[in-house]
Every structure is written in C-alpha cells, then in structure tokens.
Amino acid sequence: xxxxxxxxxxxxxxxxxxxxxxxxxxxxxxxxxxxxxxxxxxxxxxxxxxxxxxxxxxxxxxxxxxxxxxxxxxxxxxxxxxxxxxxxxxxxxxxxxxxxxxxxxxxxxxxxxxxxxxxxxxxxxxxxxxxxxxxxxxxxxxxxxxxxxxxxxxxxxxxxxx
Length: 162
What we know:
The chain is an alpha+beta fold and about 160 residues long.
C-alpha cells in the first residue's frame, strides 16, 4: 500500500456535481447504469436541505476527490440503538488498494462510535470478490443467511393499493 496523504471531508454544496459523477461511476461499476436516476437537483433535495436524509464523505489526495462514501442513520430494534447504513462506497480504479477505502471506512467508524451506533451495515454484490475480500480485511462479517428484499417504483404503488 502506498503512503498517500488521504484527507477525508464532509461534502459541501459545491461538491454536488462531483458526487453525482461518483454515483454515476459507481452505477457503472455495479453494472446498473440503466437504473441511474440521480441528478444534482434530486441529490440537493435530500443531501443539502434543512433535514438531510443522507451524508457524504469525500476522500481527497492532493486536493482532488478520489472516492466517496454515502451513508445515513438507521435503527436496530434488537440493539435499541442507532446504526449507520453505508449506501455507497466508491474509489476511483487507479487508487483501489492504496488505502482510500480503508480511510473512508475508518472515518465512518469514528462517526458510528461518536453517535453510539450499535453496528455499521451495507451490501456487497456476491460477484464482487475483491470488494468482499476488502470488507472482510476490515473486519466485516459477510452475512450469507440474510437477503435484501426490495420493492421499488411501480411496486410501491401497487402495494399501497394504487
């Protein structure tokens, strides 16, 4: 691992287009570019509003953003504690394996610790072997007995009875 001077900062409104670009790159990496609906306007309404629904950390090297982590609070009834849900973690390809992802996760762990979170959680694609190995190296347990359940788009309306 290279000895890079990685700085982690909370995203600001001026970073909006950069975040949208990272989301686009992440969707391409995940093979879900066809599902991408993120726009600067939509992101601003949830990230930079009076009651933000989500937060973003940016990883910078020499003043240039090279990765991001998007996260929000969740809650565990079993733990009766808040939790931190990592929605996206992305590092530009040339810098993977150089400590950027680790720096982002460590910053998230500090946030989780300071807000009394009982756990940090996220998903990883079962076909992303390098990602799984990276997360396990950081101390994550990959839970094989839990599956993500999802209802989206028109399915929400159908279930709501519309």
